[in-house]
Amino acid sequence: MKSVAGVVGLPLVVAGIVLFFVVPLIAENTGNECQALEKYNASNAARNVTGSTTGPIYGMLNGLARSVATGEATSAAEANAHPNIPVSVSCAYDFWKAF
Question: pTM for the whole thing?
Answer without folding.
Answer: 0.88
